[in-house]
Automatic annotation (TrEMBL):
Species whose genome carries this gene: Ohessyouella blattaphilus
Cross-referenced InterPro entries: BaiN-like, BaiN-like_dom_sf, FAD/NAD-bd_sf, RsdA/BaiN/AoA(So)-like_dom, RsdA/BaiN/AoA(So)_Rossmann
Keyword Flavoprotein (UniProt): yes
Protein's UniProt name: Aminoacetone oxidase family FAD-binding enzyme
Statement: the UniProt record of this protein carries the keyword Membrane: no
Length: 414
Protein backbone atom coordinates (compact mmCIF):
# COMPACT_ATOMS: atom_id res chain seq x y z
CA UNK A 1 0.00 0.00 0.00
CA UNK A 2 1.37 3.40 -1.03
CA UNK A 3 0.55 6.34 1.24
CA UNK A 4 1.33 9.87 0.05
CA UNK A 5 1.34 12.59 2.73
CA UNK A 6 1.31 16.13 1.38
CA UNK A 7 3.02 18.39 3.90
CA UNK A 8 5.81 17.69 6.37
CA UNK A 9 4.60 19.67 9.36
CA UNK A 10 3.16 18.51 12.69
CA UNK A 11 0.12 16.79 11.15
CA UNK A 12 2.01 15.26 8.24
CA UNK A 13 4.88 13.77 10.27
CA UNK A 14 2.51 12.48 12.95
CA UNK A 15 0.49 10.84 10.18
CA UNK A 16 3.60 9.27 8.69
CA UNK A 17 4.72 7.77 12.01
CA UNK A 18 1.25 6.54 12.83
CA UNK A 19 0.80 4.95 9.40
CA UNK A 20 4.09 3.03 9.53
CA UNK A 21 3.37 1.81 13.04
CA UNK A 22 -0.07 0.62 12.01
CA UNK A 23 1.22 -1.11 8.86
CA UNK A 24 4.99 -1.51 8.66
CA UNK A 25 4.80 -2.80 5.09
CA UNK A 26 3.10 0.36 3.83
CA UNK A 27 5.22 2.61 1.62
CA UNK A 28 4.82 6.00 3.28
CA UNK A 29 6.15 9.12 1.55
CA UNK A 30 6.02 12.70 2.82
CA UNK A 31 6.13 15.45 0.18
CA UNK A 32 7.42 18.74 1.64
CA UNK A 33 7.75 21.93 -0.39
CA UNK A 34 10.53 23.41 1.80
CA UNK A 35 14.12 22.22 2.07
CA UNK A 36 13.40 20.49 5.37
CA UNK A 37 10.38 19.20 7.27
CA UNK A 38 8.76 20.73 10.37
CA UNK A 39 10.23 24.22 10.00
CA UNK A 40 7.07 25.82 11.38
CA UNK A 41 7.35 23.79 14.59
CA UNK A 42 10.57 25.66 15.39
CA UNK A 43 8.62 28.92 15.61
CA UNK A 44 5.86 27.67 17.91
CA UNK A 45 5.61 28.77 21.54
CA UNK A 46 8.35 31.37 21.00
CA UNK A 47 10.69 28.56 20.06
CA UNK A 48 9.64 26.34 22.97
CA UNK A 49 6.80 24.41 21.26
CA UNK A 50 3.75 24.44 23.51
CA UNK A 51 2.17 21.30 22.03
CA UNK A 52 -0.89 20.66 24.23
CA UNK A 53 -2.67 21.83 27.36
CA UNK A 54 -3.96 20.36 30.61
CA UNK A 55 -7.46 21.35 29.56
CA UNK A 56 -8.45 20.26 26.06
CA UNK A 57 -12.13 20.92 25.33
CA UNK A 58 -14.08 22.28 22.38
CA UNK A 59 -14.55 25.62 24.21
CA UNK A 60 -10.98 26.51 23.21
CA UNK A 61 -11.65 25.99 19.50
CA UNK A 62 -13.49 27.81 16.73
CA UNK A 63 -15.00 26.68 13.43
CA UNK A 64 -18.30 26.67 11.59
CA UNK A 65 -19.02 23.06 12.61
CA UNK A 66 -18.70 22.74 16.43
CA UNK A 67 -20.00 19.15 16.37
CA UNK A 68 -16.90 18.06 14.46
CA UNK A 69 -14.38 19.27 17.04
CA UNK A 70 -16.52 18.05 19.95
CA UNK A 71 -16.68 14.56 18.46
CA UNK A 72 -12.99 14.58 17.59
CA UNK A 73 -11.76 15.76 21.00
CA UNK A 74 -13.97 13.30 22.86
CA UNK A 75 -11.84 10.56 21.29
CA UNK A 76 -8.52 12.41 21.09
CA UNK A 77 -7.77 14.29 24.28
CA UNK A 78 -4.52 15.26 25.93
CA UNK A 79 -3.50 11.69 26.88
CA UNK A 80 -3.56 10.55 23.25
CA UNK A 81 -0.92 13.14 22.36
CA UNK A 82 1.15 12.61 25.51
CA UNK A 83 1.34 8.90 24.71
CA UNK A 84 2.48 9.71 21.17
CA UNK A 85 5.12 12.16 22.40
CA UNK A 86 6.42 9.57 24.84
CA UNK A 87 6.62 7.03 22.01
CA UNK A 88 8.97 9.29 20.01
CA UNK A 89 11.14 10.10 23.01
CA UNK A 90 9.80 13.53 24.02
CA UNK A 91 9.81 14.15 27.78
CA UNK A 92 7.20 16.83 28.68
CA UNK A 93 7.11 19.53 31.32
CA UNK A 94 3.99 21.43 32.41
CA UNK A 95 4.02 25.16 33.12
CA UNK A 96 0.75 26.87 34.09
CA UNK A 97 -1.15 24.17 32.25
CA UNK A 98 0.97 24.40 29.07
CA UNK A 99 2.94 21.35 27.91
CA UNK A 100 6.44 21.80 26.46
CA UNK A 101 9.35 19.44 25.83
CA UNK A 102 11.45 19.30 29.03
CA UNK A 103 14.28 21.11 27.26
CA UNK A 104 11.85 23.89 26.25
CA UNK A 105 13.38 23.72 22.79
CA UNK A 106 11.04 23.31 19.83
CA UNK A 107 13.92 21.69 17.95
CA UNK A 108 13.62 18.70 20.31
CA UNK A 109 10.19 17.86 18.90
CA UNK A 110 11.21 18.54 15.31
CA UNK A 111 14.22 16.25 15.70
CA UNK A 112 12.20 13.53 17.43
CA UNK A 113 9.59 13.48 14.66
CA UNK A 114 12.15 13.40 11.87
CA UNK A 115 14.30 10.80 13.65
CA UNK A 116 11.32 8.48 14.16
CA UNK A 117 10.19 8.87 10.55
CA UNK A 118 13.61 7.85 9.27
CA UNK A 119 13.86 5.01 11.78
CA UNK A 120 10.53 3.58 10.62
CA UNK A 121 11.43 3.85 6.95
CA UNK A 122 9.31 6.84 5.95
CA UNK A 123 10.57 8.52 2.78
CA UNK A 124 10.94 12.29 3.13
CA UNK A 125 10.89 14.11 -0.19
CA UNK A 126 11.90 17.71 0.54
CA UNK A 127 11.78 20.47 -2.09
CA UNK A 128 8.76 18.75 -3.62
CA UNK A 129 5.88 21.17 -4.11
CA UNK A 130 2.74 19.30 -5.11
CA UNK A 131 0.91 21.17 -7.87
CA UNK A 132 -1.98 18.85 -8.53
CA UNK A 133 -3.61 15.63 -7.36
CA UNK A 134 -6.21 13.72 -9.28
CA UNK A 135 -7.59 10.23 -9.22
CA UNK A 136 -7.62 7.66 -12.00
CA UNK A 137 -9.66 4.68 -10.90
CA UNK A 138 -8.48 3.68 -7.46
CA UNK A 139 -5.10 5.37 -7.87
CA UNK A 140 -4.03 8.91 -7.01
CA UNK A 141 -1.75 10.73 -9.45
CA UNK A 142 0.45 13.32 -7.76
CA UNK A 143 2.13 16.06 -9.79
CA UNK A 144 5.15 17.51 -7.99
CA UNK A 145 7.21 18.30 -11.04
CA UNK A 146 7.63 14.56 -11.33
CA UNK A 147 4.63 12.26 -11.31
CA UNK A 148 4.05 9.97 -8.32
CA UNK A 149 1.38 7.36 -7.64
CA UNK A 150 -0.41 6.47 -4.41
CA UNK A 151 -3.26 4.35 -3.10
CA UNK A 152 -4.16 6.79 -0.32
CA UNK A 153 -3.43 10.50 0.14
CA UNK A 154 -3.30 12.53 3.35
CA UNK A 155 -3.54 16.29 2.85
CA UNK A 156 -1.61 17.95 5.69
CA UNK A 157 -0.25 21.07 4.01
CA UNK A 158 -1.15 23.50 6.77
CA UNK A 159 -3.10 26.65 6.05
CA UNK A 160 -1.79 30.01 4.89
CA UNK A 161 -0.25 31.46 8.06
CA UNK A 162 3.49 32.19 8.10
CA UNK A 163 4.02 31.22 4.44
CA UNK A 164 7.78 31.70 4.76
CA UNK A 165 7.77 28.54 6.93
CA UNK A 166 5.92 26.46 4.36
CA UNK A 167 2.17 27.08 4.67
CA UNK A 168 1.46 28.90 1.42
CA UNK A 169 -2.25 28.12 1.13
CA UNK A 170 -1.77 25.68 -1.76
CA UNK A 171 -3.55 22.92 0.16
CA UNK A 172 -6.86 24.74 -0.19
CA UNK A 173 -6.53 24.55 -3.97
CA UNK A 174 -5.64 20.86 -3.86
CA UNK A 175 -8.68 20.13 -1.67
CA UNK A 176 -10.97 22.21 -3.87
CA UNK A 177 -9.81 20.48 -7.05
CA UNK A 178 -10.68 17.16 -5.44
CA UNK A 179 -14.25 18.24 -4.72
CA UNK A 180 -14.04 19.74 -1.24
CA UNK A 181 -15.36 23.15 -0.23
CA UNK A 182 -13.36 25.78 1.66
CA UNK A 183 -14.84 28.47 3.91
CA UNK A 184 -13.40 31.99 3.91
CA UNK A 185 -9.82 31.86 5.24
CA UNK A 186 -8.50 34.79 7.31
CA UNK A 187 -5.48 35.36 9.59
CA UNK A 188 -5.84 34.35 13.26
CA UNK A 189 -3.61 34.65 16.33
CA UNK A 190 -2.24 37.78 14.70
CA UNK A 191 -1.38 41.38 15.75
CA UNK A 192 -3.93 44.09 14.95
CA UNK A 193 -3.43 47.46 13.27
CA UNK A 194 -5.29 50.52 14.54
CA UNK A 195 -6.84 53.43 12.67
CA UNK A 196 -4.30 56.14 13.33
CA UNK A 197 -1.37 55.83 15.71
CA UNK A 198 -3.52 56.43 18.79
CA UNK A 199 -1.07 54.84 21.22
CA UNK A 200 2.17 55.49 19.33
CA UNK A 201 3.60 57.41 22.30
CA UNK A 202 3.36 54.18 24.33
CA UNK A 203 4.99 52.01 21.66
CA UNK A 204 6.99 49.20 23.21
CA UNK A 205 4.97 49.14 26.44
CA UNK A 206 3.84 45.80 27.86
CA UNK A 207 1.14 46.03 30.51
CA UNK A 208 -1.72 44.01 31.94
CA UNK A 209 -5.07 45.01 30.48
CA UNK A 210 -8.52 43.83 29.50
CA UNK A 211 -9.53 44.03 25.85
CA UNK A 212 -13.17 43.80 24.80
CA UNK A 213 -13.91 43.39 21.14
CA UNK A 214 -17.10 45.07 19.88
CA UNK A 215 -18.30 43.97 16.45
CA UNK A 216 -21.44 45.35 14.87
CA UNK A 217 -24.27 42.83 15.05
CA UNK A 218 -22.20 40.29 17.01
CA UNK A 219 -21.62 39.32 20.59
CA UNK A 220 -18.67 40.88 22.41
CA UNK A 221 -15.47 38.97 23.09
CA UNK A 222 -13.17 39.68 26.04
CA UNK A 223 -9.58 38.75 26.86
CA UNK A 224 -7.37 39.67 29.83
CA UNK A 225 -3.59 39.45 29.93
CA UNK A 226 -0.42 41.18 28.81
CA UNK A 227 -1.01 43.82 26.15
CA UNK A 228 1.83 44.81 23.86
CA UNK A 229 1.54 48.26 22.31
CA UNK A 230 3.22 48.93 18.97
CA UNK A 231 3.57 52.19 17.06
CA UNK A 232 0.67 51.26 14.79
CA UNK A 233 -1.35 48.66 16.68
CA UNK A 234 -1.86 46.08 19.39
CA UNK A 235 -0.26 42.72 20.05
CA UNK A 236 0.29 40.10 22.76
CA UNK A 237 -1.48 36.83 23.53
CA UNK A 238 -4.60 38.57 24.85
CA UNK A 239 -4.96 40.36 21.49
CA UNK A 240 -4.23 37.14 19.58
CA UNK A 241 -7.15 35.46 21.36
CA UNK A 242 -9.52 38.09 19.93
CA UNK A 243 -7.92 38.45 16.53
CA UNK A 244 -9.84 35.71 14.67
CA UNK A 245 -13.13 37.46 15.51
CA UNK A 246 -11.74 40.82 14.36
CA UNK A 247 -10.30 39.23 11.22
CA UNK A 248 -13.63 37.63 10.31
CA UNK A 249 -15.47 40.91 10.98
CA UNK A 250 -13.14 42.95 8.79
CA UNK A 251 -13.45 40.39 6.00
CA UNK A 252 -17.23 40.85 6.21
CA UNK A 253 -16.75 44.66 6.06
CA UNK A 254 -17.96 45.10 9.63
CA UNK A 255 -16.55 47.68 12.02
CA UNK A 256 -14.39 46.27 14.83
CA UNK A 257 -13.54 48.23 17.97
CA UNK A 258 -11.29 47.10 20.81
CA UNK A 259 -12.08 48.72 24.15
CA UNK A 260 -9.06 48.75 26.46
CA UNK A 261 -9.14 48.73 30.26
CA UNK A 262 -5.67 49.42 31.66
CA UNK A 263 -6.69 48.71 35.26
CA UNK A 264 -8.81 45.56 34.84
CA UNK A 265 -8.52 44.47 38.47
CA UNK A 266 -10.38 47.57 39.68
CA UNK A 267 -14.10 48.22 39.06
CA UNK A 268 -14.90 51.63 37.53
CA UNK A 269 -16.36 53.09 40.71
CA UNK A 270 -13.39 51.91 42.78
CA UNK A 271 -10.94 53.62 40.43
CA UNK A 272 -12.80 56.91 40.85
CA UNK A 273 -12.81 56.57 44.64
CA UNK A 274 -9.12 55.65 44.80
CA UNK A 275 -8.11 58.46 42.45
CA UNK A 276 -9.91 61.08 44.53
CA UNK A 277 -8.49 59.64 47.75
CA UNK A 278 -4.98 59.90 46.34
CA UNK A 279 -5.59 63.54 45.39
CA UNK A 280 -6.60 64.31 48.99
CA UNK A 281 -3.62 62.45 50.44
CA UNK A 282 -1.08 63.85 48.00
CA UNK A 283 -2.33 67.23 46.76
CA UNK A 284 1.20 68.12 45.67
CA UNK A 285 1.37 65.17 43.23
CA UNK A 286 1.12 65.81 39.52
CA UNK A 287 -1.54 63.87 37.61
CA UNK A 288 1.21 61.65 36.25
CA UNK A 289 2.47 61.08 39.78
CA UNK A 290 -0.90 59.71 40.89
CA UNK A 291 -0.60 56.92 38.29
CA UNK A 292 3.14 56.43 38.70
CA UNK A 293 2.95 53.09 40.54
CA UNK A 294 -0.03 51.82 38.54
CA UNK A 295 1.00 52.15 34.90
CA UNK A 296 4.21 52.40 32.85
CA UNK A 297 5.42 55.98 32.40
CA UNK A 298 5.15 55.98 28.60
CA UNK A 299 1.58 54.72 28.83
CA UNK A 300 0.67 57.39 31.39
CA UNK A 301 1.95 60.09 29.06
CA UNK A 302 -0.01 58.67 26.13
CA UNK A 303 -3.26 58.41 28.11
CA UNK A 304 -2.92 61.93 29.52
CA UNK A 305 -2.34 63.25 26.00
CA UNK A 306 -5.45 61.46 24.74
CA UNK A 307 -7.45 62.90 27.65
CA UNK A 308 -6.14 66.39 26.87
CA UNK A 309 -4.38 66.81 30.22
CA UNK A 310 -0.79 67.98 30.70
CA UNK A 311 1.28 65.56 32.74
CA UNK A 312 2.63 68.42 34.87
CA UNK A 313 -0.82 69.49 36.07
CA UNK A 314 -1.35 69.10 39.80
CA UNK A 315 -3.96 66.44 40.43
CA UNK A 316 -5.94 68.67 42.81
CA UNK A 317 -6.34 71.24 40.04
CA UNK A 318 -8.39 68.89 37.86
CA UNK A 319 -12.03 69.73 37.31
CA UNK A 320 -14.62 66.99 37.84
CA UNK A 321 -15.23 66.60 34.11
CA UNK A 322 -11.48 66.27 33.49
CA UNK A 323 -11.25 63.50 36.08
CA UNK A 324 -14.16 61.71 34.43
CA UNK A 325 -12.58 62.02 30.97
CA UNK A 326 -9.21 60.79 32.23
CA UNK A 327 -10.59 57.76 34.03
CA UNK A 328 -12.78 56.88 31.06
CA UNK A 329 -9.61 56.91 28.94
CA UNK A 330 -7.86 54.63 31.44
CA UNK A 331 -10.79 52.23 31.92
CA UNK A 332 -12.61 52.20 28.58
CA UNK A 333 -10.45 53.48 25.75
CA UNK A 334 -11.97 52.63 22.33
CA UNK A 335 -9.57 51.78 19.51
CA UNK A 336 -10.83 51.21 15.97
CA UNK A 337 -9.11 48.32 14.19
CA UNK A 338 -8.43 48.86 10.48
CA UNK A 339 -6.67 45.59 9.64
CA UNK A 340 -4.67 42.64 10.91
CA UNK A 341 -0.96 42.24 10.15
CA UNK A 342 -1.92 39.55 7.66
CA UNK A 343 -1.01 35.95 7.01
CA UNK A 344 2.73 36.66 7.16
CA UNK A 345 2.43 37.57 10.87
CA UNK A 346 -0.34 35.08 11.77
CA UNK A 347 0.24 31.89 13.73
CA UNK A 348 -2.79 30.08 12.28
CA UNK A 349 -5.77 30.62 9.98
CA UNK A 350 -9.47 30.85 10.69
CA UNK A 351 -11.56 28.97 8.13
CA UNK A 352 -10.56 26.15 5.82
CA UNK A 353 -11.85 22.88 4.37
CA UNK A 354 -15.40 22.32 5.61
CA UNK A 355 -15.37 19.75 8.39
CA UNK A 356 -18.88 18.61 7.49
CA UNK A 357 -17.12 16.88 4.58
CA UNK A 358 -14.67 14.96 6.81
CA UNK A 359 -15.28 12.08 9.24
CA UNK A 360 -14.23 13.36 12.72
CA UNK A 361 -13.26 9.91 13.98
CA UNK A 362 -11.17 8.82 10.99
CA UNK A 363 -10.24 12.10 9.24
CA UNK A 364 -11.28 10.57 5.93
CA UNK A 365 -12.97 12.53 3.20
CA UNK A 366 -16.66 11.96 2.69
CA UNK A 367 -16.28 13.09 -0.91
CA UNK A 368 -13.21 11.21 -2.19
CA UNK A 369 -12.52 7.58 -1.38
CA UNK A 370 -8.95 7.16 -0.09
CA UNK A 371 -8.41 10.84 0.76
CA UNK A 372 -7.71 12.02 4.33
CA UNK A 373 -7.34 15.59 5.60
CA UNK A 374 -5.58 16.68 8.80
CA UNK A 375 -4.34 19.74 10.65
CA UNK A 376 -4.72 23.43 9.99
CA UNK A 377 -6.04 22.87 6.47
CA UNK A 378 -9.40 22.12 8.10
CA UNK A 379 -11.83 24.73 9.42
CA UNK A 380 -10.64 24.33 13.02
CA UNK A 381 -8.60 26.95 14.88
CA UNK A 382 -7.79 27.16 18.56
CA UNK A 383 -6.72 29.77 21.07
CA UNK A 384 -3.11 30.23 22.16
CA UNK A 385 -2.06 27.54 24.63
CA UNK A 386 -1.09 24.49 22.60
CA UNK A 387 -4.56 23.93 21.13
CA UNK A 388 -3.64 24.26 17.47
CA UNK A 389 -0.65 21.93 17.71
CA UNK A 390 -2.76 19.49 19.71
CA UNK A 391 -5.27 19.29 16.87
CA UNK A 392 -2.56 19.12 14.20
CA UNK A 393 -0.72 16.26 15.89
CA UNK A 394 -3.76 14.21 16.92
CA UNK A 395 -5.63 14.63 13.62
CA UNK A 396 -2.45 13.52 11.87
CA UNK A 397 -2.13 10.50 14.15
CA UNK A 398 -5.68 9.41 13.34
CA UNK A 399 -5.39 10.11 9.60
CA UNK A 400 -2.20 8.05 9.36
CA UNK A 401 -3.63 5.14 11.31
CA UNK A 402 -6.84 5.01 9.31
CA UNK A 403 -5.26 5.54 5.90
CA UNK A 404 -3.38 2.22 5.99
CA UNK A 405 -6.40 0.15 6.92
CA UNK A 406 -7.66 -1.87 3.98
CA UNK A 407 -11.43 -1.82 4.53
CA UNK A 408 -12.84 1.63 3.87
CA UNK A 409 -16.37 2.91 3.43
CA UNK A 410 -17.55 6.45 2.98
CA UNK A 411 -19.97 7.48 5.71
CA UNK A 412 -21.97 10.63 5.03
CA UNK A 413 -23.10 11.15 8.62
CA UNK A 414 -21.59 11.50 12.05
Amino acid sequence: MRIAIIGGGAAGLAAAISAKRENSSALVTVYERKEDVAKKILATGNGRCNFTNEEITSSFYNGDDPAFIETFLAANGRDVLLEFMDSIGVVPVVKEGYYYPRSEQAAAIKDALKRMCLHLGVTLKNNNSVKRIHKEGAEFIIDAGKVFHADRVILATGGQAAPVLGSDGSGYGLATEMGHHVSCVTPALVPLLTSGKVLAKASGVRTRARATCHIAGCENYTSVGELQITDNGLSGIMIFQLSRHVSKALEAKKRAIIELDFLPEYPDEEVMIRFKEQIKRFPYFSVAGIFNSLLPEKLIQALLSLAGIKKSRLANELREEEITTLLRTVKAMPVTIRATKGFASAQVCAGGVLTTEVDPLEMKSKRVDGLYIAGELLDVDGLCGGYNLHFAFTSGIIAGRMAVRKDETIDSNY
